[in-house]
Amino acid sequence: MNKFKLNELPAWRATELLASRELSATDLIRACLDRALERDAAVCAFAHLDPDAALAQARSLDAGPVRGPLHGLPLGVKDLFDTADMPTSYGSQIYAGYRPKADAASVALCREAGALVLGKTVTTEFAYFQPGPTRNPLNLAHTPGGSSSGSAAAVADHMLPLALGTQTAGSVIRPAAYCGVVGYKPSIGRVSRAGVKSLSESLDSVGSFGRCVRDVSMLGAVLTGDSRLSRTPQIEAPRIGVCRGHGPTRTHNAHWTRLFRPCRRLSLPLQTLIYRMIFPIWWHCKRPSCILRCPARSAMNASGIATASVNNCGYCSTKVLQSLARSTARTSPGQLLPNAAWMRCLTVLTY
Prior knowledge:
Low-confidence stretches: 269-351
Strand order of the largest sheet: 1-3-2-4-6-5
């Protein structure tokens, strides 16, 4: 515990200390509240924060038995989830001061597991395009990404160890990437959306944020009811597949050289599996910065390819997926790369 400030403890480590009573929920909540009160005027991660209520709940937890796997952990809840004891505005002035009668199902699951809801985090209005006031804690001049802006920013700035979010297109994985934390977007239907304001019934899903994979897997196990998620397996070194367009420019080559230089310096065993595509399928894209926009992970997952993220514009990503489905990728002239090679990649980057 000497290595970290209390508010910087990984969630998995905090649960161990809380379960053994080496750490009290009150002390942990107070450390997170101190950080939030110090930084939130600049970051604007919270839509609602009630320090007195949070401390009262923490003292109640400390006085009783260990509640579950999230006992005593502070949790941020995106202001798209109903909460019976806090206002829920869905990021809109239309619902200012609205008080739901019950918690959303996912919030109730977290409370039942012992989590303590510290506050409601900022969302874009109705999880759509109108942004909230949240700033990126890594650089206050930059966007934190949306729509789960406040959840990602609060976790990144050590105001919270865990937070809930939602995703329709990229509203978990995008702010997680922008703020430098881990975002978990389960398959659609894995987590109940009861009590969560809907944007798209066929695309919405409940997700979560943490500062490491182990933290997010622990919260994911509670949300899905699948305890296997909390048992982090030992995996092989990550593999990265890189799709390079036909005739990459000198600028592109320099970009990838800079990208992989830190990996080589740290001797990370990353493997660049794919070097060229048979077709220049995104050559005519007019968005020069599309590699930084429009994550298409859900589409990739729907194709049965295990990925962490795919970064490109929607047109480019769709064409890449179509080519992958036809096994058109080649590592060298005349050598066909089977789909199985893509499936072994943790991440597929395209440009």
